[in-house]
Amino acid sequence: MNYFTVLIILFFCFSCNKKPTLALPSGTDTHFAKVFPIIQEKCVSCHSEMIWNTTNQWILSDYIIPGNPKQSPFFLSLRGTHVKGKGNMPIDKQEDLTAEELSIVENWILTAKLIKPKSNNTASNEKKIISDLRLFYRCYGHLTQARPTPSNIFIKKIKNGELKGLDACNKLVKGMKFNKNKLDINNIDFTTQKLMLRNFQSLHSSWFPNYNFANNNQTWGTFEFFDPNDVALYITRSLFNDQVPFKEIFSGEVTYSAIRKSEFKSDYLVYRSKLELYQPMESFLLSLGQDATKPMPWLPRPKYLERGSLVGVTATAMNQNKINIGFISDAVRKPIKLNTDFNKGFGGGLLGSPGYLVLNFGNNLGTIMEDGQHNMRTWSKGIFRDLFCRDLPVIKISDSKNYMDEDDDEDRDLAFEKSEQCMQCHVSIDSMAISAKNVTVLLNNLIAAELDLEDMDKVHLQTMFPVSTKNLINFKHPNLPYANGNEKAYLIYRNFYDKLIEKEFSNIEGLGKAMTDQIDPYICISKRYFEYFTGIKINLNQLLKRKKIHDAGETKVYQLLEKLGLELKKHQNLKLLILSIFNTEWYHLQDFGYNQYRK
Amino acid sequence: MIKIIIMIFIFSSSAISANSLMFQPRMGNKYYVNSVLENIYGPESKIILQKALLPYSDFFGGPCDPYEVVLSKKKGSSGTLYKCFNGMPDLRSHMISQPSTLRTMQMKNLCQKLSQDQKTLKFSLKVLNNVKEFKDKIQSYYHSFYPWDNLSNSEIENIIKTLNKKYFWKTYSELLCQSERWQIP
Question: Where in chain A are the domains?
Fold first, then answer.
C-alpha cells in the first residue's frame, strides 16, 4: 500500500460522510454503553475527535463535566436540551437527537465519574542501586557526553574509598563556573569544564526547536550576526554564574553572545552551500541598499559572531551594529528609514532577544501588527512550548467562553473569536502576543562586492533583524497606532495546579516578570533537566490533565516536579536543581526506575 | 486495510488515556560514543569515527554547533574541529537517542571497521600489556568498555569456549564494541 492510498483511507475515515465504528472496552459502564452508539451515529462523522470510547476520556477532554450536564460543553452544544447552550448540533437537523436520546446523554453525564486505574507496577519491585563508581561514570557522561580518562582523580579516590560517587558528581557540578564571564583557562580541569559548557549549551539549545532564520527570503546572512542558539546562552550563563539568578534570564534588554577561542581565523561563512561551508568571506564588504555597483558602507562596520570552541558568555556590546535602513523584501526596493541597534533586546531577557524574535516571528517580513488579524502568535505559542513546556490549549474549553466576542461588530469579523474551540488557544496566545505588538522584522543586504558571488547569493546573504515600530522614521502605516499603542497584554493559562491565571502586563519585560511570579517556568526547566538526566520523558499536558487518575509513577513524578519547581523558585540556582535531581532515588537506580513504574 | 483503519482509530482514541510518562533507555549521543571509542581505539580511530559515526546525528543524536567550525582557505592554516555534516538541521539534533535498528546497524558497521583495522585493534590491546593470565586479560579488556563492572568466572569461561581462538581478540573487541549497555552513560 503506498502513501497515497493511506492518505485516501485517512480522508474517508475523517470525512463527514463516513461513520467509522469502534469497539467499547470490556467493563464499560452501562450509561456510556448507551450513549456511545448515539455519538457514533450522530457526531463522529464530523467530530473525529469524539471517538473516545471511555467516560474517562470524555471527562479528561473537558467535553463533559461529571454530574453537571448544564456546564458540559458537549451537552450545551446539542439542540433541544433547553439549557441555554449553543444548541446547534448536529448540523443536519434530520439527525437531531430524540428526547429519549437526550435523556440518555444527560443521565450519562449526571452519573459520570473518573475512574482511577488500578496500580500496575508489579513488573518488578526489586530496586537495583548502582555502585559509587558507576554513579560517577553516569553523571560524568551526562554532564559532558564524554567518558573520564582512567587517570581521573575522582575515579582513583572512589576506588580507594576516599570519596562517594555522589560527592564526586556534586564536585563536578559545582565546578561549572565562570571566572567573570568565561571559563578559567588555568583551572586544573579546564578540559572537563569546556566539555560541560559545550554540552549544556547544546542541551539548552535543544529546548528551543526553531533553528532556521531563513524563510521565504533565504536570508542566510542572518547567521553571521545572530546565533540561533543565543536564547540558550541566557540559561547557560545562569548555570555557570552563581551570581545570575534563574529569573534574570527573563529580564532586561541586554543580549548575550558566545565567547569563543580558536587558533585560526575562519574565512568561511557559517551556512552551507553545495554541502560545503560557504567559502568567500575575506574582505567581505557590507553595504546598504540593493545596488551592488554602488555599495553604501554600513558604519560602524557590523561585528560578526565569534568562531571556535565555546569558552564563555558575555553581554553583547551595544552600538557596534547600528543600522538606519531596512527593506520589507527583496522585491520591494523602497528603503525604510530607521534608527536601531541590531543587538539591543526588547526586554524580558531571552523572551525579547533579537534571535528569539526573528526565529519565532511567524509573519511576513515587514508586517505591522494589527489587533486580531496579524500578531505575534507564533512567538507566544513558542513561549508556551519552550518555557512552560506546554502545548496549546492551556485553558479549558469551558474557560474560553468568558473571552469570546459576543458583539456583532461588522468591522471586526473574526470568525475564530466566535468559536469556543478556536478561542481555547487564541485567548492565551493572542493576549500574550499584544506585548510584542511593536515588533516587526526587516532585512538588509550584505553585498559582497569584492567577491565572486553567484546571482542568487545576493538574496541568500541578506540579514533579518527585529525593529521596534517606534524606531521607524517618517513611516506611515494604518496599523501603526495599534502597534505603538498602550493596549494591555495578559498571561492567561491554567497553571500546574489547574488554577486559571490571568495577569496583566504592558510589554515583554512585564511578561518576564509575570512569568517568574508563577511556578510553571520553574516546573518546566525542572522537567527538562529531569528528562535529560533520567531519560524519563514527561508529557506535561497529559500529566496535568490526568492528575485525578495518576498511577504510582505519575504521582511520584508530579510530586517531584512540584518539589523541584518550588525549590528553584526559592533558591534560583540551576546547579542546585541538578544536584537535587542527582539526589533522587531515580538517578541511583540501575534502570532509572523503568521497570518499577513502566506500565 | 481494515486492520490499518482500526489501528489508526485505536491510536487516536488512546491519545487522552495514555500515560504521561515514557520510559525508554537513553543512549549517549555521538559525542559520547566518539569519546569512549577514541579512548579505547586510540588516535588512529579518528578517521573511522569521522566517517562512520559523526555524520549520523539522526541515529545517535548530538547537535552540531556551526560556530565551532573553524576553516580557512589559506593552505596550512586549516583548523577544522568537526563539521556540521547535515547542515543547519544538525543544530537541533536530539541531545540523546533511543535504541533503534538503524543505530544498531551503524554501530555494527563502525565496530567492524575498528576491530578489523590492525592499528586501532592493536592500540586497544595495550591495556593487556602487563596482564599475564588469559582470563585476567579478558577481564581487563572488558573494563575498557565497562570500567565499573566485572565479568563473573562463568562468563569468562563462556567467552573462552565460544569465541574462535584464531580471531579471539578481534571478535571479542567487536562484540564488546557493539554491546549496548556501555552506550548508556
Answer: 11-111
Residue recorded with cell 536543581 = A577
Beta bridge partners of A259: A312
Other CB atoms within 10 Å distance of the CB of residue A82:
8
Give the type of residue at A268: Y
Residue A524: φ, ψ to 5°: -60, -50
Within 10 angstroms of residue B152's Cβ, the number of other Cβ atoms is 9
Please say whether the dihedral angle defined by the alpha carbons of residues B10, B11, B16 and B21, taken in this order, is positive or negative: positive
The DSSP line for A87-145 is --BSSSGGGPPPHHHHHHHHHHHHH----PPPP---S-----BPPHHHHHHHHHHHHHS
Q: Which of A272-276, A540-544, B36-40, B123-127 is least confident?
A: A272-276
Q: What is the pLDDT of residues B144-179, one digit of tens each?
A: 999 999 999 999 999 999 888 889 999 999 999 999
Residue A109 CB neighbours (<10 A)? 24
**Angle between helical axes of A574-582 and A520-534 (0-180°, round to 10):** 50
Q: How close, in Å, is residue A321 to chain B by CA atoms?
A: 19
In a mutational test of the A interface, the residue from B4, B54, B67 whose CB has the highest number of chain A CBs within 10 Å is B67
- Scan for cell 590492525, then name that residue: B118
- Close Cβ partners of A197 (under 8 Å, ≥ 6 residues apart): A176, A183, A236, A240, A310, A311, A312
Cite the beta strand spans of A158-242 per DSSP E: none
Between CA A317 and CA A23 the distance in angstroms is 64
Q: Which of A370, A380, A375, A373 is nearest to A414 (CA)?
A: A373
pLDDT in tens, A487-499: 999 999 999 999 9
Q: Per DSSP, which regions of chain B are E strands?
A: 21-23
Output b/e per residue, A195-225; b: 16+ Cβ within 10 A: bbbbbbbbbbbbbbebbbbbbebbbbbbbbb
Among the partner residues B29, B84, B92, nearest to A209 by beta-carbon distance:
B92
Distance from CA of B32 to the nearest CA of A (A): 4
Cα-to-chain-centroid distance, residue B17 = 36
Decide: A281 and B73 in contact? Cβ < 8 Å. no
- Are residues B24 and A591 in contact, defined by beta-carbon separation less than 8 angstroms? no
Query: In the 3-class helix/strand/coil scheme, how is A47-92 assigned residue by residue?
Result: CHHHHCCCHHHHHHCCCCCCCCHHHCHHHHHECCCCCCCCCCECCC
H or E stretch including A273? strand A272-273
Q: Please list every residue in chain B whose beta carbon sits closer than 8 Å to the beta carbon of residue A591.
A: 25
- Strand-strand pairing, A462-468 and A489-494: unpaired
